[in-house]
Amino acid sequence: MIATNASKYYIIAFVPKKCFNEIIQKMIGKILKNVVHQLLIKCIIIKNKFGDKLSDWMLPEGTEEEKFRISILRNDINSLPKLQEKDSIVSEQEWDRHRMTLRDHIMRLDPRNFLRWPVVISTMFFSGKIVELEYLKSLPDWAEYDKAITESTIGKPKNFPDFKRSSGNLIHHAYSIALFSETFSLKIKSCHNIFEFGGGYGSLVRFMYQFGFTGKYIIFDLPEFSFLQKYYLSGIPRLGIDFNKNTERTEKVVSLTTTIEQSVNSVGNKPLDIFIALWSLSECPIALREEIFKLLPLPKYFLIAYQEKFNNIDNVDYFKKLAILRPEYRWIDFPILHLPGNRYFFGKKIEG
């Protein structure tokens, strides 16, 4: 034992002081690096497990109006029948999981933070691309878009880094509308009835009203998302939206529907100006798409964005066939260059 220790000291005695200090520093550096790494792992685990709750704790006490809207939202969710596990196609199973997660979050977490929930971010919130903002700024009516993309604080959305008073998602919606409008020289303000298949949390309809649309807007969606849309839109009083289904108003009326029959009744016998489906129609079963097109009155315009592939569905082939089946429309199908694997599908009814 003594000899071993002696040999250790003997070896160290012949190591230059400068080299010895460097060895010690490297050893300490490795130890500290390992400690920091372990701490980071623990922080990530804590964030994943308690992150939503921590962000809730940072919120101030809710106002009476906020508490009232949250109570309505939770009562609506509680009124829904329990989702049953069932054998179904992959896309339906996927959206059933999203529905169950959203229900859980609404009941357990603070909805004032809902735009920070992973289930919302992954399905309804696009972080944005600078090319979309640059396109909007290049338009002659940029001043109107500039005003319309001012973001609301409802849900605590993340601001777009290059345009902090907006969000990537709101800019993305404005970009889709601008591209579509410029293609057909269409003024959104001149439209009276718009139908949206899958309305997310209500961001697009919010943009449309901020952009000058004053007509009726119908959204078809799953019940959980429909309730979330009402919670979100009712928190922006400046929009002046009326949700009353029996209203005699014709301006700024939003009809939230959860069945095709409700959608058809809401449209009524009035002509439909635009059918909008942004990454929604392309995610649903073919049978539901066919039912929608069969029962809903044909619009003057189609604005559709889609993934080229979704699960086992070839959407490029599907929309190519749809264009052939509807020769009364002028169709434009093109890739979104800054979003590889995604495309726009615009249609305008041919007059005469």
From TrEMBL:
Highest taxon in the source lineage: Bacteria
Name assigned to this protein: Sugar O-methyltransferase
